[in-house]
Each structure stands twice: as C-alpha cells, then as structure tokens.
Amino acid sequence: MSENPPRKAPRIPENRRTAYNVGTVLTVLGVIVIVGSFATLLTGFGDMSLMQGPPAGFLWFFIGMLLTAAGAVVRRVAARGLAGSGVVLNPEQAREDLKPFTHAIGGALRDASEGFHEGGPVQAATQIMVRCSHCQALNPEEAKYCNQCGVSL
Q1: Residue 14 banded pLDDT, cuts 50, 70, 90
Q2: What pLDDT does residue 6 have?
Q3: Which of 34, 41, 128, 153 is 20 to 30 Å from 17 at the Cα level?
Q4: Are residues 74 and 94 in the same domain?
C-alpha cells in the first residue's frame, strides 16, 4: 500500500480563534449566572416576599440564558466563519471558511479507509471440530453427542 504524504492542515485565522474563546467565556459565564440564580431562588424559596413579585433571581436567570445563547452563537460563527455559518451568503467564501472542517473530516475518512484496506478481506473464524470415535463423523467442539450417530463424545 502506498503511504499518503500528510496534508498541510489549513490554519484558522487568529481573530476567529479569539472570537471562539470569547464565545466560550460568555457561555461559561452564562452557566455560572444560571446556577447562581438557581441557588439564590432555592435559598429564598420559603420567603414570603415571593408574593410581592418575582425575585431578582429570575432576572439573573434570564441574563444567564442570554449570555449562554450569545456565547453559543459567537462560538459557532467563529468556528465556521461568517460565510461558513451562513451569516454571509457567499459560497466561495463559505468553502474557504469551512476548509479546516473538511480537512478534518477528509483526514478521518482517509484514516478509516486505510484501516479497512489494511485488514484485507474478513476471514471466517476457524472452528475446531471433534471426530466421533464410533462413526468418525466431524462434530463442533462444543457438541456433547455426535450429530451423526448420537454417541456421547
């Protein structure tokens, strides 16, 4: 089999990496705010001030949800680029933005196909047979009685 030379992986621009990290920080911050708002609501659960209106924990919960959603959107756009994520409708730019993904998927498919071809055709498992001492018929190893004459093996 011929060995394929490794392809040079396309580089993701630094501004997209930075935006991806900012999106991750926003997502984590949003989750922290959501968990904190739940903790606030649980600690004041038996408080009668709930009858006077929604507690501040509800506002923080929605702020956390917005932060988490904004972080997810920023991460998706940063990972795929503006055209690759569909923000800008430009097929040529989308192909360019998605090159790191197509490179990774193509590499995984190439690795899988090489592994498949290296093994060759699948061979049937060898089965051990036991010969009957009475009639000389071949029987599977796990058989207790001969399939031909019924004598105990």
Answers
A1: confident
A2: 60
A3: 34
A4: yes
Residue reference for tokens 């408080």: 47
Q: What is the tens place of the pLDDT at every residue in 58-82? A: 788 899 999 999 999 999 888 877 7
Tell me which residue has tokens 């690795």: 111
Q: Which structural domain, as residue segments, surrounds residue 87? A: 14-119
Rounded to two decimals, the pTM is 0.51
Co-location of 63 and 138 in the same domain: no
Q: Are 26 and 64 in contact (CB under 8 A)?
A: no
